[in-house]
Structures are given as structure tokens and as C-alpha cells.
Amino acid sequence: MKMENGFPKINFSDSINSSSIKSFIHTLEDLCAQHPEAKTLVINISSPGGDVDVAIEMFHFLRNLDCEIQTVNTSYVNSAAVLIYLAGDVRICHSGSTFYIHSISKRLKGVYDVQSLLREAKEISANTDIVTTLLEQRTKKSRRYWKNLMSKGCILKADQAVKSGLASIIINN
């Protein structure tokens, strides 16, 4: 944690899972307590992604903070990390930043019967709907556009991210 242009700044450069997000939220709460007057929070992100359920939860947590959020893609924002980035009111990326958009998958452990597999498939479908709806609401593109990109597995460069509305601005430093 430090200050950037007078704003509190925090870095997130981990995989997204319950443990990493719990720690991140704790750090955010400490930061907010230390700087209750802060009107803007800067979150630098470089993450391979991870658990989409946890990323959706983190998106909503960030959107409910009482300050402007600036998210910065410092290198790569992949998979579920796109949702944390998407929570920013201002979304910044560097000219070499990339975003990896792909379909939601789930690693299964154990033995599954038909009903269990169907339940998992329904959860993946529901999460796909949630993610594409959030992307549509926060960008310039439709759910259909995002669903299509997810099905292909696509790496967006900075200029493509700005054109789609995923990113707001490219910085060159």
C-alpha cells in the first residue's frame, strides 16, 4: 500500500481464490480506515485469473465502495481477473497490457453422477450469463459480443480493449 498522485494505491498480483481475495479485502479495509477522506482508490492489477465465483464477489465488493475506483492493468489481466479490473470507474492500461477472455471452466474432483455434472454445467452457464451481463453493462459491447469472445478464447491488446470499452485509457509509461 502506498500513495499515488495523492490517492491510496494497492497492488493485486495473485491468482484469484478465496484466500487471496480474503487477504486483499482485509488490506483494502485497512487502507480505507487509514485514508477515510480518500475520494479515489487506485488498484494496480496483474493476475492470471482464477475462481470466477470469487471474482464476481470481488467485483460487487469494489463497486460498493464509497469512492472512485481506478483499476490499472500493469501487464496482464487474464480470465476472472478481468472482473476485478472491470469494477474500475476509470480503467487504465499500459500500451503493452493484455487481457485474456475465455469461456468459464471448472476443475472437478471426485466421482460425479449425471445429476452432479448437470448441476456443475448449470453453474457454469449461470456464471457465463453473469459475466457477460457485467461486461455488457460496463463496456460498449453486447453480451453476445462477449460470449463470442469467450467461446473463442481471445487475447485483447490495449487498443482493442479501449475500442471495446473494457479499458478507458492507454498510458505509455
UniProtKB/TrEMBL annotation:
UniProt cross-references to InterPro entries, sorted A to Z: ClpP/crotonase-like_dom_sf (IPR029045), ClpP/TepA (IPR023562)
Domain of life where this protein originates: Bacteria
SUPFAM superfamilies on file: ClpP/crotonase
Name this protein carries in UniProt: ATP-dependent Clp protease proteolytic subunit
Organism: Bacteroides finegoldii
